[in-house]
Design goal:
56% of the residues lie in helices and 0% in strands. The chain has 684 residues and is mostly helical. Pfam families: RRN3 (PF05327).
Length: 684
């Protein structure tokens, strides 16, 4: 290390005025001994002016050396002061030496330490300069930004506790005296959030990652307590520095862990932090879904199978977790396109899975008593993030299971979730796309939520029926046929009810003689007459056979399953309606009626009617992430799809013959293909 020359130092000491150093702010000085062995309380007799002139002092517990290269700490302070003063006057030699002292901390050593002064600075030497600079932060103005930048690059987290505390003192003093550096200081600290491992400087004892993170947040907590206005600045920084989706799982987990620590010690930023994490989880979720859709089914199945087998084998080693996929991804130029896609899918799945597992674990303690004020308040916050971030995002696949899982902890929480969805789905001032999404969430939650009660199922089914009838009465007088663009909200309600029926039909039966059936044996319900929920049968009949013709617009898969169940359970027989719908060409109708034929200019296939059907999006379809799925499996809160035993064995050919015979009269009467503009018989 290059030091200032002795002669230059002596000349400066004889001609310069000693500046008053700033008072230490991290801790109050204790009773200390000076170099002559006298206790500090002797100095107390010198009066308050003497106290104000005191510099940062260290007791024996700080293990601070009093001599530095044959100089006392006071001499180091004089060196620092003179270097800063001369830099202000245009002489940069000593100032550049200070920059080199801190810059050497970033350089790797190519040879062992020796007695040569040009060797990298030892930790105790660097500590002396940090303490000295703390005393003269008023001199570190804009002209000293280069030195400040070098200091902020110092490996302070990986050194000992004494250095870390002294460094935090310096940061606090710097921000207090030079407020323009606050953003730069906070940015430096947030940069450490992504570090899963920090290099230990030479000649320093190894420090654990946990210890480094504790020191980092001790500094953050102290700065935020001193400067409350810095919280908004910090939120902007942590948002901008959140890892890109291409970053590794380790980087994401390290960053999220540090965000959660920040949230814990600074509750004022709690909502901002959780909304940020939620938004980035949703982004990862959507990107993962796009990756899965781009890959073929066999590739997706292979990736998921491998991840499940690894999770079942209790693969706990982080190095083993990440090394294979990420090391290969780093050299993606050597991979073919298919292999690169597989590794990208695996990387996205692992990151999303690990973060969601962390969040499930974070929230669980709040719901040990699900009716407590803490649980209610926590779930309200979760619903806020869900409403603002998750629900409006199309293709979100797993992020929403947080509100699904915790919403079933108690009936009150279930009602909170259902009430939120109802408010969004049926408020007139909401965007149409958001209302449609809310209806899909509502139907999917009721269908898949194992702890949603039968009474709640009937209440929600009744509400959907009421809105269906309301829209039907408004739309039908001017309706010429099924039109998804004009009546989207109506069709969403119908599809939601059909989907709900397919899963929860047993809860819609109100048989008084329960001895005839066994709730746990769906096959016992077949071939019997049932008393259905009031208004269900008539309401479905009125809507299905109306001019709006929802069965033509709803997802064919859902319609087919509903038709089969409704027939064998004795609710209604709709196969003739389905057969007549085959002769209705929606694309021809929509092209002429809704767009004046403009669709013909877009190159669309007039025979492909997929775009005229509702998307079968139900956001609580089976959870696929291999590790975090344990929360749903262990709690038994999820209803998987199960068909009625024996129902799928029905002779489909015989059923088709029945359909054709009942629809034969219509076919014989018509020689040309029907269109959606044909009048439909109203059942009302």
């Amino acid at each position: 290390m290059t030091t200032l020359t002795e002669s230059r130092r002596n000349m400066a000491l004889s001609s310069s005025q000693v500046l008053t150093p700033v008072k230490p702010i991290l801790r109050k000085p204790t009773r200390l001994h000076d170099k002559r062995g006298r206790e500090s309380d002797e100095d107390d007799a010198e009066g308050p002016d003497a106290k104000r002139r005191k510099t940062v002092v260290f007791d024996e517990s700080l293990n601070m050396v009093k001599d530095f290269c044959s100089r006392s700490l006071e001499e180091v302070k004089r060196e620092v002061r003179l270097a800063l003063e001369r830099h202000a006057a245009g002489d940069d030699e000593d100032y550049d030496n200070l920059k080199e002292i801190f810059g050497s901390d970033q350089k790797s050593r190519s040879r062992p330490n020796s007695d040569d002064e040009d060797e990298a600075t030892r930790s105790q030497d660097l500590l002396a300069y940090v303490v000295a600079l703390t005393s003269y932060v008023p001199l570190l103005g804009r002209k000293c930004s280069g030195l400040v930048t070098s200091i902020l690059k110092c490996s302070w987290l990986a050194r000992d506790d004494v250095f870390a505390k002294a460094y935090i003192q310096f940061l606090a003093a710097l921000c207090s005296a030079q407020g323009s550096y606050l953003t730069q200081v906070l940015s430096m600290m947030v940069d450490q959030f992504s570090e899963s491992r920090i290099r230990t400087p030479p000649n320093c004892a190894s420090v654990s990652t946990e210890t480094m993170r504790q020191r980092l947040h001790m500094g953050l907590r102290y700065l935020l307590a001193l400067f409350p206005a810095a919280r908004s600045v910090l939120i902007g920084i942590v948002t901008s520095k959140f890892p890109y989706s291409e970053e590794s799982k380790k980087v994401h987990l390290a960053y999220v862990d540090n965000l959660l620590r920040l949230r814990k010690h600074t509750p004022e930023v709690d909502r901002d932090i959780m909304e940020l994490i939620t938004s980035r989880v949703v982004k990862l979720d959507v990107e993962m879904q796009l990756d899965l859709e781009d890959a073929d089914d066999s590739t997706t199945a292979a990736v998921m199978s491998q991840l499940r087998s690894e999770s079942n084998g209790l693969l706990e080693d982080d190095d083993l977790d990440d090394s294979d996929a990420e090391s290969v991804l780093s050299d993606a130029s050597d991979l073919d396109e298919d292999s690169a896609r597989v590794l990208a899918i695996r990387s996205h799945v692992e990151k999303l899975d690990a973060i969601l597992d962390t969040i499930f674990d974070l929230y669980s303690p709040y719901f040990e008593d699900p009716n407590s004020p803490e649980a209610i308040s926590c779930y309200e916050d979760m619903l806020s993030d869900f409403s603002n971030v998750v629900l409006p995002t199309y293709r979100s696949r797993h992020s929403q299971f947080l509100v699904f899982y915790f919403g079933q902890k108690s009936p009150r929480l279930t009602e909170m979730f259902v009430g939120t969805l109802f408010n969004i789905a049926f408020e007139s001032n909401r965007p149409s796309i958001v209302k449609q999404s809310a209806v899909a969430y509502l139907a999917s939650f009721v269908a898949r939520g194992a702890r949603v009660t039968g009474d709640q199922v009937q209440t929600i089914a009744t509400t959907l029926l009421n809105y269906m009838n309301y829209h039907r009465h408004n739309y039908e007088p001017e309706c010429r046929g099924p039109d998804l663009r004009r009546y989207t909200q109506y069709y969403m309600n119908v599809q939601a009810l059909l989907y709900l029926f397919c899963f929860r039909w047993r809860d819609l039966i109100i048989d008084s003689e329960t001895s005839r059936v066994d709730y746990d044996d769906p096959a016992s319900y077949l071939g019997q007459d049932h008393d259905w929920m009031l208004g269900l049968k008539q309401g479905l009949t009125n809507n299905i056979f109306s001019k709006l013709n929802p069965l033509k617009v709803c997802s064919p898969g859902i319609v087919a399953e509903f038709a089969k169940l409704a027939h064998h359970l004795g609710l209604m027989y709709i196969y003739p309606r389905l057969e007549s719908n085959k002769r209705i060409q929606l694309s021809q109708f929509v092209g002429a009626y809704s767009t004046g034929g403009a669709l013909r200019d877009t190159g669309y296939d007039p025979q492909d009617e997929k775009w005229t059907h509702l998307d079968p999006y139900f956001p609580f379809d089976p959870y696929q992430l291999p590790i975090s799925r344990r929360w749903l499996e262990e709690s038994e809160t999820y209803v998987p799809w199960t068909s009625i035993p024996g129902l799928n064995g029905v002779d489909e050919e015989e059923e088709d013959d029945d359909e054709r015979s009942e629809a034969g009269d219509v076919e014989d009467e018509e020689d040309e293909e029907d269109t959606a503009t044909d009048d439909e018989k109203d059942v009302d």
